[in-house]
Write a structure and sequence with these properties.
Blueprint: E1 3-6, E2 9-12, E3 17-23, H1 25-30, E4 32-38, E5 45-50, E6 56-58, E7 66-71, E8 76-81, E9 90-97, E10 101-103, E11 107-112
Parallel strand pairs: 2-11
Antiparallel strand pairs: 1-3, 3-8, 4-5, 4-9, 5-6, 7-8, 9-10, 9-11
């Protein structure tokens, strides 16, 4: 498994979760990494990404609540999610883009009202 996502679960509105995505070293150092999410019947959407130089990009819907980060020593990408809302309920996927694109298996986040 080249990307392994974890950390999903069920939380009440206003709560927090941290997602993790463990990557192989090769993928981690050669790829731009991001988090996406998808709900049934909808297209997968970008949640947050790390661009060249480790700048961050966020979807408008999560700005100020979610933080993307990485730990180079652990080859791990994170998504800290605070002030969660029911509309954040989705399957979250980590993504790595270099010469090819890699996807993690997805982790379900459920936010109850």
């Amino acid at each position: 498994v080249q990307l392994q996502a974890s950390g999903g679960g069920t939380v009440q509105a206003g709560g927090s979760l941290r997602l993790s995505c463990a990557a192989s070293r090769y993928i981690f150092v050669t790829s731009l990494m991001a988090w996406y999410r998808q709900t049934p019947g909808k297209e997968r959407e970008l949640v947050a990404s790390l661009t060249d130089g480790d700048s961050t990009v966020y979807a408008d819907s999560v700005k100020g609540r979610f933080t993307i980060s990485k730990d180079d020593a652990k080859n791990t990408l994170y998504l800290q999610m605070n002030s969660l809302k029911p509309e954040d309920t989705a399957v979250y996927f980590c993504n790595a883009l270099s010469r090819r694109e890699y996807w993690g298996q997805g982790t379900l986040v459920t936010v109850s009202s």
